[in-house]
Structures are given as C-alpha cells and as structure tokens.
Amino acid sequence: MTDMTQEQRKKQIAKQYLLSIIYFLSIFPVIILAFSLPFIFAKFFPIDGRHIVPCYVFGGIIVIFLFMQAVASLRHAEELERDYEYHRISGDCPEAFTVSSNEEKNN
Questions:
Q1: For residue 104, is it within any domain?
Q2: Residue 74: CB partners within 8 Å, gap ≥ 6?
Q3: Domain containing 9: what range?
Q4: CB 60 within 8 A of CB 34
Q5: Measuring CA to CA, which residue among 106, 104, 107 is closest to residue 3?
C-alpha cells in the first residue's frame, strides 16, 4: 500500500501517542464544563433543578466518548510500535517496509 521509512514510522507513532495524550487531557475540561454549565445557564435563564440532570448526563456521555477515544488511540500507538519493532528486529526491510494490503495478499 505505502512504503514508509523507519523515521516516518517513528513520527507516526509519536503523533499517535500525542493524540492519545490530548484525548486524555481533554477529559478534565469537559468534566469541569459539565458541572458548571447548569450554574452558568441559571445566571441567564430561569431554570430549575430538572435542567441540571441533562447537563450532567450529556457531559458524562462526552467524557465516556473521550475516554474510549483515548484508549483506542493509545492501543493503536502501541500496535504501531510493536509493528515497527517487529520490522526493525526481523530485518525484512531495513530502510523501508510495506504496509500489507489486500492486493499483496491476493498475489
């Protein structure tokens, strides 16, 4: 499919780890926003207690989604790292190696 040098693979792994860190760190502002949103709305709109629960539920759903994305991104980074180490140790392609595709499997 595509040929990548080892340096490009290292950069891809680093980007994937950075993405997982960003996902993990973005969870905390969402939690703070979910807890403070009902009180912010209360200053501008006449709301009562029944509007607080949907804000917490919506914030909880977003937090769960971000956590799942962070874990998936971290697992993908670890998989890329294992793939890189396998190709580096086996010496199949010392400078560049090919990511497998359906075309290669059919041949």
A1: no
A2: 17, 20
A3: 3-93
A4: yes
A5: 104
Q: Does residue 102 lie in a domain region?
A: no
CA pair distance 54, 16, nearest whole angstrom: 33
Residue 17 lies in a domain: yes
Q: Looking up tokens 């917490």, which residue turns up?
A: 56
This model's pTM is above 0.70: no
Q: Kindly give the confidence (pLDDT) of every residue in the chain, 107 residues in length, as a single tens digit, with 9 standing for 90 and above.
A: 356 777 888 888 888 888 888 888 888 888 888 778 777 777 777 767 666 777 778 878 888 888 888 888 888 888 888 887 877 777 665 454 445 544 454 55
> Is 33 contained in some domain?
yes
Q: How many domains does the chain have?
A: 1
